[in-house]
Specification:
Layout (H helix, E strand, L loop, with lengths): L23 H6 L15 H27 L4 E3 L5 E3 L5 H11 L5 E7 L2 E6 L4 E4 L4 E3 L2 H5 L6 H13 L8 E3 L12 H4 L4 H8 L3 E2 L2 H4 L5 H11 L32 H11 L1 H10 L2 H29 L15 H22 L4 H16 L26 H5 L7 H6 L3 H5 L3 H5 L2 H13 L4 H17 L27
Parallel strand pairs: 2-7, 3-8
Antiparallel strand pairs: 1-2, 3-4, 4-5, 5-6
Length: 494
């Protein structure tokens, strides 16, 4: 802009401030007085006086010109989304908030849809609500000026609008006196039924509406999930029961302290203190928890089958059984594998849209392992053992017990081991496993699997193959969790 802002080219407001064109009235306010340098000219009094008279008139003309020019010049901010915002209609207070917000970088801990609109929980407590009639924030700046927008609202609306513009870099938008973009559709209309996909794109944790779906996690379950994610083997279902026994009673931070038990103290704080809960959600987001969960389920089934194979060959019982109370007898293994599939199915729904890629990998790997065990596990046993407890070879064949054969009764057919769980996954995440599923189908056709099972698997494969790479699935990238360890996993907004 043409106003004399050279004195302020290093000025920054707020954090993460980029180079921003500042308002002419701000630049003019800091302009130095030309008369401050009069003593340096070395001229006599008369000439100085004469020169100053002429200079005053020139200054007045320049000032008048600057005044007129500044009124026709506006501040413009290029935001992180690429949208250029004209701030000329904002007063100085809202303009400062807009500059800080549009050049800032905040973190969304979680977001969700409610009957009243959309809620966004930002780190360090600000809570932004987008409703049909207004957008509000819980921060002090908004409470002090509820007729406008705060820096959190400016930033959030820019992030959301950027998701709906194919070329935001070519968009110029003027902000109305209350802070709303005048040329863009109202964001609450764009978000209808779409917040989940937007949250996935921006890598924000999306909280399902538990009241309407009945499938989401409660806050206590989320805390239990986060705590178990830091363990290499423990699943949320297997965490200490005493941690959840007394959480229904409201507690202050002081009342959450359990003397001599740090884990129980932190668990209670996470359940009852929003600050602790939000910090834990930021450190271990829902996407990371989901990936870790399905990785651990897959590792547990692998360990269980390896323990069973070792037991069949050597008679050796595992030092650390996968499930306390259950061993590696055939009936125990079948029970644990069926329970694992049930756990995966339940968690696909509870964790959506996160983790479906990991769930698909766990299910297909398990199915491959069972299909590969269509044999008598005691055949060729070096110990000369011919039976566990007097059963025949089919009664200890895992493939026969879990999938069956053409002679299998209808009750076994109805179980359709793993297949119902696969159907719960987005087709796009099944697409990555289509070739492996096709190989499984060929093998069980040779093994003479029950016809209903073959038809069911064939239908799943056709859906997976037809979904293609362009289909929309969970869109959730799986973090590198290693051996159940989430170290190094982090997310940032754009």
């Amino acid at each position: 802009m043409s106003a004399p802002t050279r004195q302020f080219n290093r000025l920054s407001i707020g954090r993460n401030m980029s180079e921003t064109t500042l308002p002419a009235r701000v630049a003019r306010a800091g302009r130095p007085d030309p008369s401050d340098d009069d003593s340096d000219h070395g001229e006599d009094d008369s000439s100085s006086e004469e020169g100053s008279n002429g200079g005053d008139e020139a200054d007045k003309e320049d000032e008048s010109s600057d005044e007129e020019e500044s009124e026709s010049t506006s501040a413009s901010v290029l935001a992180a989304s690429g949208i250029a915002y004209d701030l000329s209609q904002l007063d100085s207070e809202l303009e400062a908030s807009a500059i800080v917000g549009l050049n800032g970088g905040f973190d969304v801990v979680n977001c969700g849809s409610t009957a009243a609109g959309y809620d966004f929980q930002l780190l360090d407590r600000p809570h932004v609500h987008i409703g049909p009639d207004s957008t509000t924030c819980s921060c002090y700046a908004f409470k002090n000026r509820p007729d406008g927008a705060c820096q959190h609202i400016f930033w959030l609306l820019d992030q959301l609008h950027g998701c709906y513009l194919s070329a935001p870099q070519s968009i110029e938008v003027a902000l109305t006196p209350d802070g709303r973009p005048d040329r863009l559709p109202r964001i609450e209309s764009l978000l209808k039924g779409d917040l989940g996909s937007v949250a996935t794109r921006l890598e924000w944790q999306y909280l399902r509406d538990e009241d309407s779906t009945g499938k989401g996690m409660t806050r206590t379950e989320k805390v239990r999930d986060i705590f178990s994610a830091f363990s290499s083997r423990t699943l949320p279902e297997d965490t200490r029961r005493d941690l959840t026994e007394t959480i229904e009673q409201a507690r202050t931070a002081e009342q959450c302290v359990v003397q001599g038990d740090f884990e129980a103290t932190m668990f209670r704080l996470a359940v009852h203190d929003d600050g602790v809960f939000n910090s834990l959600c930021k450190a271990m987001p829902a996407g990371a928890c989901a990936a870790i969960y399905f990785d651990k389920i897959q590792e547990q089934t692998r360990r269980l089958l390896n323990d069973f194979d070792r037991y069949c060959v050597t008679g050796e019982l595992p030092a650390e059984p996968v499930s306390p109370g259950l061993g590696v007898e055939v009936s125990d293994v079948v029970t644990q594998l069926q329970r694992a599939v049930s756990q995966i199915t339940t968690n696909i729904a509870a964790r959506a849209p996160h983790g479906s890629e990991g769930a698909a990998e766990a299910l297909v790997s398990l199915l491959e392992s069972v299909v590969a065990r269509n044999n008598d596990p005691l055949e060729g046993n070096p110990l000369g053992r011919e039976s566990f407890h007097g059963e025949d070879e089919d009664q200890r064949n895992l493939y026969h017990l879990l999938i069956g054969s053409v002679e299998t009764d209808s009750e076994t057919d109805a179980r359709h081991f793993v297949l119902h769980a696969l159907e719960a996954l987005p087709p796009a995440d099944l697409h990555q496993c289509a070739n492996r599923l096709r190989d499984i189908l060929r093998k069980i056709e040779v093994n003479r699997a029950p016809k209903p099972y073959l038809i069911h698997l064939g239908n799943i494969i056709r859906i997976a193959e037809s979904s293609g790479s362009g289909a929309t699935g969970s869109g959730q990238k799986r973090p590198a969790t290693g051996n159940g360890n989430s170290g190094g996993y982090s997310k940032r907004t754009r």
